[in-house]
């Protein structure tokens, strides 16, 4: 009887996909979350691009176009890292995770559902930023080869930021404090990683070194490679795009994030 019931249970993948559908429906119903999730990064891009947009560098690229490319990294980080970290903390605090733990859903299926939500939001967020950059600031769209690079950068960036958000949620004691706790590293990394300040060589060398240990620097550098002309690589810290290093660092953070998730994930505030 038990074996028959177990055999009838859907797989972890199917359960995760169904959970992802539920997560998407719940998110769409919260109009405030929808507006602010997509509006804030786009608003920042419009502000930075408008304020500094009239300045051009030696390569003939406007500051607004640089911001448009760089802030794709910010959009992914804010959507994946903050959404996942805050959402997981809220689910743990309001008892959602505890109730789910009493059902056949596994931790892997639950996290897969969250990953589907974050991936969908990141696609929409990135599309919004690219649209603003192209239509408002004339950011050039890349050729097929650069779109291929964009695909693996986007995938690795989303996975790494999502997994890190899951791991960091373990130190969030209550959902009310989640925004403050998660946004402190987020804002700091934007400034030292060349998202808000470019060229990154304007920063002290030791800050660039610190930023190099985190994925945001490599995310923003990678998206600049995709959307900006090759002459812009001279303004990077190493004077090159370093695509191989970008792939290695982002993949490493995916592994680190996964290990941290396995170590820190819990269904309740205090697992017994």
TrEMBL record:
The chain crosses the membrane at residues 33-52, 72-90, 111-137, 149-172, 184-214, 243-262. It is a multi-pass membrane protein. One of its GO terms (biological process) is response to antibiotic. GO terms for cellular component: ATP-binding cassette (ABC) transporter complex. The keyword Ion transport does not apply. It is found in: Cell membrane; Membrane. Residues 32-268 form the ABC transmembrane type-2 domain. PROSITE patterns: ABC_TM2. The keyword 4Fe-4S does not apply. Keywords: Antibiotic resistance, Cell membrane, Membrane, Transmembrane, Transmembrane helix, Transport. One of its GO terms (molecular function) is ABC-type transporter activity. Belongs to the ABC-2 integral membrane protein family. This is Transport permease protein. It comes from Paractinoplanes rishiriensis.
